[in-house]
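Structure (tokenized):
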């Protein structure tokens, strides 16, 4: 399984993966729009795990010069519990470290105990901060 930077030919498989893994996503997370916006960012922090042309997992990361963010980690149901999610997270961490990123944040839904346990197993810890969202959500093209 190769972890590499996202390519345009990955789009259809990635959209299908996200539709499977994130079925209740809100408008701003609609896969095609999210892919377009990330590609336009051109920051090389968009990775897929592929084997013989088949996408088994993907992750988006970001770095703003202050802290890194891990977004949208997804692994196909048939490839879970085999270490692929861990490999994707470690790939992001190494990529951010090369950029000089001192800190990595992520958000998960508190009720998603399985995902919380996954990140805790990788050494992430919850922090006592509040996350605020703007009340009016803008859905960008």
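Design, position by position:
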């Amino acid at each position: 399984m190769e972890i590499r930077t996202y390519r345009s030919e990955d789009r259809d498989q990635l959209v299908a993966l996200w539709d499977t893994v994130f079925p209740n996503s809100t408008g701003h997370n609609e896969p095609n729009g999210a892919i377009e916006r990330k590609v336009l960012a051109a920051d090389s922090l968009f990775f897929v795990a592929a084997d013989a042309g088949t996408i088994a997992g993907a992750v988006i990361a970001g770095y703003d010069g202050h802290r890194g963010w891990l977004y949208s980690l997804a692994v196909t149901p048939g490839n879970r519990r085999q270490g692929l999610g861990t490999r994707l997270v470690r790939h992001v961490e190494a990529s951010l470290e090369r950029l000089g990123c001192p800190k990595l944040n992520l958000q998960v839904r508190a009720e998603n105990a399985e995902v919380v346990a996954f990140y805790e197993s990788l050494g992430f810890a919850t922090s006592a901060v509040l996350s605020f969202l703007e009340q009016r959500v803008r859905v960008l093209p």
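Reviewer-requested clarification: Residues 84-98 form the longest helix (15 residues). The first strand starts at residue 2 and ends at 5.
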